[in-house]
Amino acid sequence: MSNVKKRLFKEKLAKAAMQLSGMLITGCLFFIVGTILYKGLPYLSWEMISQTPQGGFYIGKDGGIFNAILGSLYLATVSTALATLIGIPISIYVHMYVKSGSFLERACKLLFDVLFGIPSIVYGAIAFSIMVWIGIRASLLGGIITITLLTIPIVVRTIDELLKTIPIDLKHVTFSLGSTRWETAKMFLRYIKPGIFTAVLLAFGRAIGDVAGVLLTTGFSDNLPKYIDEPAATLPLAIFFQLSSPIPEVQGRAYASALVLTFIILTIVICTHLLASKQQKHKI
Amino acid sequence: MNWRLIKDKLAQRSFALLLILSIVVILLILVGLVTKSVPLLKAEHLFNILSGSVWSPMKGDFGFLPFIMGTVWVTMVSLVIAVPLCVLASVYLVEYASETLRRLVLPLMNVLAAIPPVLYGVWGVLFVVPILSEYIAPVFGVDTTGYTVFAGGIVLAVMIFPIMISIMVEVLQTIPQELKAASLSLGATKWETITKVILIKAKPGIIAAIVLGVSRAFGETIAVLMVCGNIPQLPKSLFDAGYPLPALIANNFGEMMSIPLYDSALMFAALLLFVLILGFNLISRIILNRLEEKAQ
Questions:
Q1: How many CB atoms lie within 10 A of CB A24?
Q2: Please, are residues A240 and B118 in contact by the beta-carbon 8 Å criterion?
Q3: pLDDT score, position A78
Q4: Could you tell me if A98 and A172 lie in one domain?
Q5: Of A35, B158, B206, B294, which is most buried by a Cβ count within 10 Å?
Q6: CB distance A110–B282 less than 8 Å?
């Protein structure tokens, strides 16, 4: 009998360990957001997010990070738009035009799965050396190109997952009614419309939060980004630079900037979630 | 020809062009990395580069061992922390948790995945580093600033939680109900069923998830750079500072122009990362794709 007791005890122990690790992992999220909230909130002010750095900003004088917020928004918006325009046709092509189950289809899917995992520092390094090679300096344009390359796999993979959820019968029915593949593709796009926004938001979130890719290619500037061939500030980089300062005031601003970035990301995530549940309802 | 067919063909051609273009860009990246690192490889034997432990670009010594070991250390630490936690948590989510809890936790994992690396770095600096230097290191009788491979490993572990959990949960959900029922009806406890049936069956998928986690950890730059100390030395314990490969590239890229072979060396570092991560991803994706086909 003691054997059974031992086994049941083990079962209880294991279950407790599992619950604990589950809680620990979920707790990390609240820990991270909580730490940033706790540290950043005291330093957050309207001035902080509405002004550009004034003279002496980096030794604790007046100013804000509006330049970085705007730069990040520009960068992320343009590169997400580009990545969507390139990514959607690619996934439509792989799904519609390539024979399903063929080598080409598998190879393409594998390629984008793998590309999804390539770290941004590699993209950044190679983009930087190409820029040096053809003689353009760090600029918004360089950043946009790098981030576009980074986000294309995200768009392709997400759209591909969405296309997979469409019942195959729908494809067969439309084909048998005499529509071309392009016409069917257009219908499919309408079908997955809420999902496309999800993909766009995912890509946008990745684009706005990336540092390693923009560190080398976009540079940094205290002015508002006006031209595409000039360096521009980005929010994550602003956090990174301010945090490495020894002056407490500047570090505090780094916490507040981190808080701003957290807000942006959380907004994106909530929108994504709402859209994803809409896509669920959208299903036939 | 019919106008509709022309449109169809037009779409086909242009989409194919986009696909080919994106493949070409990737090939170009690989070719670029290789050509850029050739000068270093010509000057020094590959084996010497990988095993040399002296890094002083001014004198022309490019030993990558400290950086490789830095990366290996933080990755190992993060795996030791993350793998048991993730396996336990995902088994719990699939086998024990109610549908409501699952619906609550899995989206939270997506939130964790969406948090940008720099915020993880900020968290590491504000939370992990002080805790390490003030509470944990003194227990072991070590005096440290907290900027160590241990801190890097902890931050990385949290960063690879989401990808490992989401894949492990997916894999565990494909385990057929009959297998579990058979084991349970023979009188095994749930935990025995998990260790002796479910985990054995799910092993390839779990390994694939771990490998994906490793490749994520390998390439992570900013968060690790912020907490790792960045001293080019061979870390000997958890409480030594380390200097992972991606941090090397990020820290030194702007200033490399004047020193001969320096940019070549950094490109070699990027190439090393690219090849390793490509390999890891390829392995795990192939395993996962096979599993998926089997499940269908």
A1: 16
A2: yes
A3: 93
A4: yes
A5: B158
A6: yes
Q: Is B296 a residue whose pLDDT tops 70?
A: no
Query: Considering only alpha carbons, which residue of chain B is nearest residue A137?
Result: B254
- For B173, residues 6+ apart whose C-beta sits below 8 A from its C-beta are B94
Same domain, A167 and A254: yes
Q: How far apart are CA A21 and CA B181, in angstroms?
A: 26
Structural domain boundaries enclosing A224: 48-52+63-282
- Inter-helix orientation angle B262-295/B149-173, to 10°: 20
Hey, which bits of chain B come out as E strands?
55-56, 61-62
Instruction: Report the number of distinct structural domains present in chain A.
Output: 2
| CATH number of the domain encompassing residue A210 | 1.10.3720.10
Test mutation, A10, A18, A250, chain B, max B CBs within 10 A: A18
Are A16 and A129 found together in one domain?
Answer: no
The residue written with tokens 């010594």 in the block is B61
ipTM for the whole complex: 0.86
Do residue A7 and residue A70 come from a single domain?
no
Of A25, A120, A129, the CB nearest to B89: A25
Report the topology of domain B66-295: MetI-like fold (1.10.3720)
Q: Is residue A257 part of a domain?
A: yes
Nearest CA in chain B to A116: B281
* CA–CA separation, A4 and A10 (whole Å): 10
Q: Which of B14, B17, B19 should be substituted to probe chain A, the one whose Cβ sees the most A Cβ atoms within 10 Å?
A: B19
Reading the block at residue A237, the tokens are 């980089």
Asked whether residue A36 is domain-assigned, the answer is yes
**What is the distance in angstroms between the Cα of A51 and the nearest Cα belonging to chain B?**
22
pLDDT in tens, B181-217: 999 999 888 889 999 999 999 988 898 899 888 888 8
With CB atoms and an 8 Å threshold, state whether B121 touches A240. Answer: yes
- For testing contact with chain B, the best of A38, A92, A106, A114 (most B CBs within 10 A): A114
